[in-house]
Amino acid sequence: MKVILLRDVAKIGRRNDIVDLPDGYALNQLIPKKWAEAATPANIKKITTAKAAVAAHHQADDVRFEEMATMLQKERITLSADANANGHLFKAIHESDIISAAAQKGVTLDKTWVHPKGQIKELGVFDIFLKRAGKEREFQIEVVKK
């Protein structure tokens, strides 16, 4: 019996995969638990359109990621923070601070993209990595005293 998996099933397949299973296993185990549904033409069409929509969404995110990375590489972001006489910050700079500073420059970043190279606890110039789906871009921020 051909079924469409509604979730990942160990040793069977991943979500939205169409697999051929023994009738008893599909009818007695997977379908009653709502882990799978019968692979009717209507269900196959529904899954196919859903996969296409997800692929289009990922492609749009890839394009947006590249645009934002290019904008950040051209222009350095400057953050101002309170620091002591030695240049040590009273409060560390976090991803959310970088995202809000980028937003002021017109660059919209997703919080999962921003990865600082270590903690930012002092004044200076720091490398920040943007990571998404195996792609990695680098840009710099400058932390100055308020």
Please characterize this protein's 3D structure.
- This protein is of the alpha+beta class.
- The protein has helices spanning 23-30, 41-74, 95-104; strands at 2-5, 18-20, 36-38, 77-81, 88-93, 114-116, 120-122, 124-132, 135-145.
- The strands form 3 sheets. A 4-stranded mixed sheet has the order 4-9-8-6.
- Strand 8 and strand 9 (135-145) form a beta hairpin.
- The longest helix has 34 residues, at 41-74.
- The chain is elongated.
- The model has no long low-confidence stretch (mean pLDDT 92).
Features:
146 residues, single chain, 32% strand, three-stranded antiparallel beta sheet, alpha+beta
Distance between the termini: 68 Å
SSE topology string = EEHEHEEHEEEE
Number of distinct beta strands: 9
- Overall pLDDT, averaged? 92
Helix content: 25-40%
Structure annotation, total helices: 3
> Helix/strand-derived class?
alpha+beta
Shape: elongated
Q: What is the radius of gyration? A: 24 Å
Proportion of residues in β-strands? 25-35%
Provide the spatial order of strands within the biggest beta sheet.
4-9-8-6
The major beta sheet can be summarized as: 4 strands, mixed
Low-confidence stretches: none
Summarize the structure.
This protein is α+β, with helices and mostly antiparallel strands and 146 residues long.
Write the layout of secondary structure elements.
Elements lengths: L1 E4 L12 E3 L2 H8 L5 E3 L2 H34 L2 E5 L6 E6 L1 H10 L9 E3 L3 E3 L1 E9 L2 E11 L1
Parallel strand pairs: 4-9
Antiparallel strand pairs: 1-2, 1-3, 5-7, 6-8, 8-9
